[in-house]
Structures are given as C-alpha cells and as structure tokens.
Amino acid sequence: MKRLRTIMALAVSVLFLAACGNLSNSTSSSGGATTSKSGTTLTGQTSNGDYEGVIKNGHYLTSKSRGVTNTEDSGNVYNVKSFESGMQNLSKKIYPPQSYVFQEGQYLDSSTVEDWLGRESSSNPTGLNPKKNKSTSPTSRNPIYIQALEEQDYMKQSGKSLKLSGMTIGIAVNSVDYYKKTQYGATYQTNISQAKGEAYAKDAAKTVLKRLRAKKALKDVPITIALYRQSSNDSLVGGTFFAYTQSKGNQTTINNWSTVNQKNYVLPVENGESGPKSADKTAFSNFKSQVTSFFPNLSGVTAQVHYENGSLTGMHVNVTTQFYSQTEITSFTQYLAQAAQKYLPAKVPADITVTSATGETQSYLSRSENGSKFQAHVFDSY
Amino acid sequence: MKRLRTIMALAVSVLFLAACGNLSNSTSSSGGATTSKSGTTLTGQTSNGDYEGVIKNGHYLTSKSRGVTNTEDSGNVYNVKSFESGMQNLSKKIYPPQSYVFQEGQYLDSSTVEDWLGRESSSNPTGLNPKKNKSTSPTSRNPIYIQALEEQDYMKQSGKSLKLSGMTIGIAVNSVDYYKKTQYGATYQTNISQAKGEAYAKDAAKTVLKRLRAKKALKDVPITIALYRQSSNDSLVGGTFFAYTQSKGNQTTINNWSTVNQKNYVLPVENGESGPKSADKTAFSNFKSQVTSFFPNLSGVTAQVHYENGSLTGMHVNVTTQFYSQTEITSFTQYLAQAAQKYLPAKVPADITVTSATGETQSYLSRSENGSKFQAHVFDSY
After folding, report:
1. Among A88, A359, B31, B198, which residue has the fewest nearby CB atoms (within 10 Å)?
2. What is the ipTM score, two decimals?
3. Contact A381 B304 (CB under 8 A)
4. Which residue ranges does the record annotate as region Disordered (chains A, B) (predicted)?
C-alpha cells in the first residue's frame, strides 16, 4: 500500500515572494529559514497566499503517515497532487495562512492510516472499507471505496510554541475500483456512482470524526473533513472535492455537509465528452491553433481546466514540441506569452509549461489571477 | 553529423514581461504575436533584455542550417545551450535588443555548414578541419578542431521589411576530440591545448570571413566572429567564449581580436580542481548544508557558476530530492527562497531548479541581478 508518489511536471500556484509571514519569528530567536539545530522554526513564506511550514530541530516535520495511500503504482498521479493541493486550498478559507501555520499530519501514523484504508475484517476491525463478500464480479462484489485518507494540521502561535488549532482530514473516494481476481491476473473494475461513493464517504467520515475525538489531543480542535472523488486511471486530470463539513471543538457528530462544486476538464475536449463552457473551449482552440503553427514540426497543446461554481478558476497548459536550439526556445516562449495574453480567457490564473519531446522542461510562463501579463522563464545552462 | 539537440532542464534568464518592443509593430499591421498568415511579424518580447524573433508567413523562421553540428549524440549537451545562449549574450553588447531583431541564420544552409565542419579533402575542399594524416595515435593524428559553427542574424527595420544589419558567427573549438579507430570500436581522445585551439580557430575565422564577404548579401554587413572552447564530455558545465572580433562592412581581413574572460565551474568543487572564488565557494557550501538537512532523506545540491572578468555573474543551482507529497514541495520551495536569500552571494542573478529523483521538475526559484528576492513557482496539477 505504501508507495513513493511519483509526481508530474505540471503547474499551478505562482508564489510571489513576500516578506516573511507574521509568524516566522514566533518560535525561535533565529526565526525564518535560519533553522537553528534545535527547537521549532518556520520555512518562511514566498507568498502571503501560502502557508509557512514547520521545521523541527533543523528538519522539516514530515507527516507521521508519510507516503501511505491505497493508490497503486499504476494509479493516476494527477489524483495525488490534486487531492493534496485541493485540501490545502480548501483549508485556506477556514484556517487563513495569515493566521495559521501548516504542519504535516502528526496525529495519525502510518499503521493507523494503513489499517483504516484496509477492508474491515476480524484481523482489521478499524478498516473503513467494506468486508469482502464472496463475489468477484464487478457489479456484485464490495469495492474499495476509500482510496486515500490524509491529515493536515493548522497551527497557531502560543507563547514560544505552536498549538494545534485546526485540522483538515481529506477522504478520497474511488470513482472506479481497480482489482484483480488472481495475484498477477487481469485488472477488472467496479464503477462507483457519485451517489454511492458520496453516501459511503459521509458514513466513513462520521466514524473518523468519532475516532479523532477519542484522542485526548483532538478533543477540542476544530476539524474539517473534506470529501474527494478520484478520477479514473485513464483520466488526464485529477478528481475534485464535492463536500466538506466543519466540526467545532468537542462536536462528535456531523450535522450537515456543505457542497463543493468543482469540475475538471482536459482540453481539447474529445468527441462526445461533456466539456467546459463553450467560450473557454473556443479561446483555447484559438490559442492552440496559433501555437501549433509556430514551428514547422507540430506542437502538442493540451490543458487542464478547473471550474468552481461554474466559473473557470484556473488552467494548466502543457506544450510539447521538438526544439533544435536554445534560441528557438527563447523565441517560442516570447511568442507564447503574447498568444496566451491575447487568446486565453482573461482574469484567470494560468500557466504554460513547455516540454521537449523527451520530457524535459524547457520553459514556463504564468499569470496570476490579478496579473495582466505572463511572466516567463527559459531554463538555460552555462 | 545532424542530430536533434537534446536539452537539459537547467536554468537562466528570467524574462520579466515588458511591453512589446519598439519593433513589434514594424512590419505588419497586425503586429506582435498576432501572426498574420502572410508577411513578416515578430514574436513579441517578454523582457526588454531579450530579442524579438522573426515569424514569416505564420511560422517561426528557423535556421537554414537547423540542427547541424559536429556534436555527437554522446557529446556534452551543456555545450550546445551554453554556446547558443553565449552567442546571443555577446551579440547584445554589439547589436542591442532595443534596436535589433533576432533572426535565426538564413545565409549558411545545412550542406554548407556540414561541409565546413568536415575535414578538408579532395571531395570536400571547403572543410575547415585539417586533412587526415596517417596516424591514429592521440598525439600525432590531426584532430577535429572545429566542432560547431553557427550563424545568428541581427535585423533592423527598413520601411515595411527587415534588413540584415549585423551577423554573429560562433565557432566552437574542441578541448578534447573524441574519435574511434574502427567504426564500433573504443573511443580515444586527442587533447587540444587552449593555445593550439585558439590559433587554429583564429585561422579558420579568417577563411570564414572571406567566404562570407564573397556573398553579395553579406558584402557590407557588420560581422562579429566569436570563438568558444567546448568543455569535455564528462564536464557538468559547458564551455566558454575566449575571443571575438568585430568586422565592419566591407572589411575582409581580421586585424585584431578582443579577449573574452569567462570561466565556468561546478559547485561543490571536487578535490584537486581549480575553483571559483573562496567566498563564493563558502556561500554555496553554507547554502547546501542548510538545504540538505531539510528532509530526512538527503538532497543533492549542485550549481553551475559563471564568471566574467573574475566576477561571479550568475549561478544555476540544481536540487534533487525525494518528495512524498505536494505539500512537502511547497514547504521546501518556501524554505529554499529564504535560505538562498540568506546564503547565496547577493546581487548575482541566480536560479534554483528542484527536481525529483525521477527527473521531473517540481519547482523553481529565480532572482534577477537587481532583484533582492527570489520568485518561486511550484508545478501543480488539477
């Protein structure tokens, strides 16, 4: 179940360097990235919109359940990034980075999370996934619903130390459960409808909240539980969050859920697929035709687009082409900046990563939500 | 001799988006990146410090000798980037980007350059490299001196079109010539001293200038010839320019050469190697020890540093580490910004590329010469 999460070279979040956050000198006289060899310090902040992280005794305080997930090696890597970034983005509205420090989960350790992600059985009574039944047929077997569970801690300064002041638990539910009937056999799949996955996850969330409240340290802490639906393994974009609940300190039951309305698409849209807004599709299509004609050899141009409440809120564009020289990369990057400026939807955070046919990142451009122009960087060498 | 130039994910030149250059509307009513399907337009400019490039009939005007070089597939890819970027940087002092437009070489075609890069022989009278002698011994054979030759054109607006107003020819000389005695046999090497390579290249430059002046279109054009010494194949940094000459229009002989004093090093310096300034070494070493301790698992930290006239003028830092989550990448990137700010030499353009163990670009940071702070970008996905 453990695996090293391979990570894709795609793109978001331009962090503009800002002064150290207000907490950066809070817990150590040396402060910021100075990293004294003992005690707690913070990573510093490159953007007011991002959390500072916790450094303990000179090392980054990694998660107690680092690297644990149900995701198999062949799983969709987009889900992993999208799940973790999405949890943090959702948390920003509840635990704003101006007042809170981010800490990787310290209260659920690897073996706990591994047990929870397993099936319930006599040897694993805490498994959140259903008991095995006798069937191996895609429609009548009990699938694995809960694919990943992650904890994020949000801290506040308290005297000379940091105090846990909020927690976000992300629960990722499969849309498709991939399974094998025999160890090295063919892969089968059980589809899980939105309704069924949602009901199962909300039920599991109740159990999780009770277990967390049973821990002394978590008795009084605000806990956010966010539910995520994974995309299938053949998708070129990750899944989305669909609900969250906010539990005040001491509250052991979940009374209501807030809906999260997110959609992800890949552009260009394939025939027959439901897609994003027509204006956004057209804008991308115009951009793409400008870009593909730049070089005699064709460029591949795709994009991941993200919608919240029906509005486009971000896009990651990926351009693949064959370069012959460094000067071509520079010229192409300048051209992209102008074309993106002209054709891509305005007022939307966007970035463009330019990759060689062999997979190396050549340059990238980005524009923040309020930025009117693209900033560009060409990777070079001495 | 032809090969597709593979290109490394390393880093320079932060281009901050600026208004279109003064020439961007010069040759077409549509201007900039609008790319009318006929006529000449320009790429637009992301930085005042960079050249705009030429788009003809909707396509980028690629070099007539695109992809031609003596470099073998196993050659040092750093040389390729460093040679081309270096030519452009050198040209900026002579043909400033505010007044000139960059055009990929249009006057020397592939077969011409291929012939010139060959050995002189009865079947190849224009070969710039020496005739084969009978020896195959490393010290008594005639090595291949000239490894690459590249043309860059610098244009000025003239009415509705662009006029060739300057040219830079780069000649890259081997420091080591790699050769085989039999087709699939072992690789041997002939070392070429700085003095010998320089003398040979200056001689070849005379021939090249005469040949260019014999072309009607190049009779009156200012021509810059810049000489570059390649680094060896096992080097982790490219070579450097060591001389250039400026030939006015009509001038058919080379009277004098200007010295270019450039040095490249890789940090940390290996035992016994000559290195950069002690203060810069120490600064990097402090930075490195801060960074490597951040995660429980070790990070690899190296840098390419570039000196001009004895002063550090730029550094590309490369950090490789194993990540388990997107939140770790964000925290690490913020930490790097603070550590780089604190430890790396001030007032030097610097960038940092963070790469996973599997070679994917995770994030990068950069600071321009005048910038006091690092800007950061974390690659993400929906």
Report:
1. A359
2. 0.86
3. yes
4. 25-50, 116-141
